[in-house]
Amino acid sequence: MFIAHTCTYQVVASNHSNYTVTTTVYTCKECGPCPHKAKCIKGASKTPLEERSKSLHVSKNFLRQREQMQERIQSEQGVLLRINRSIQVEGAFAVLKQDMGFQRFLLRGNVKVQTELLLLCMAYNLKKLHNKIQGSRCGKYLHIPKAS
């Protein structure tokens, strides 16, 4: 097994919104005699494979943030939020179109269409509330309400 000598350096770059990203670059100094070079270095380049060396870019801040996000997503509250989000909008349009028979707006003009949409939304919310009351699901919150 061939062990290559590496050198490391830091690259600091900013994007269009002035967010600074610090990336550590690990570069192999001596990739020439390595038997795995053809498998390790991929991509099309005008530079011949013999003259190229492997570079690995690692943003430690990004890795830390990714771990935090994974923990938040996989927490109990994160699972509830994802379940709730996945059923919100598409289900509402499906109920309006399929169950309530909404095909198109009957009136023309911005104010009249907004009024018709408002009535549809009120009907949808009332139907949801009715189903909650009938199913004895009142008083159960996904999020604890803030007291003012």
The parts where pLDDT drops under 50 for at least 5 residues are none
The proportion of residues in beta strands is 5-15%
How is the quaternary structure best described?
single chain
Spatial order of strands in the largest sheet: 1-2-3
Structural class: alpha+beta
Annotation field: number of helices: 5
Report the count of strand segments. Answer: 3
Roughly how many Å apart are the termini?
66 Å
Description:
It is built from five helices and three strands, in the order E-E-H-E-H-H-H-H. It is of the alpha+beta class and 148 residues long. Among the domains are: 6-60, no CATH class; 100-141. The protein has a three-stranded antiparallel beta sheet. It is elongated.
Summarize, please.
This protein is an alpha+beta fold.
Features:
alpha+beta
Q: How are the SSEs ordered, and which strands pair?
A:
Blueprint: E1 6-14, E2 20-28, H1 37-40, E3 55-58, H2 60-74, H3 76-86, H4 89-99, H5 110-134
Antiparallel strand pairs: 1-2, 2-3
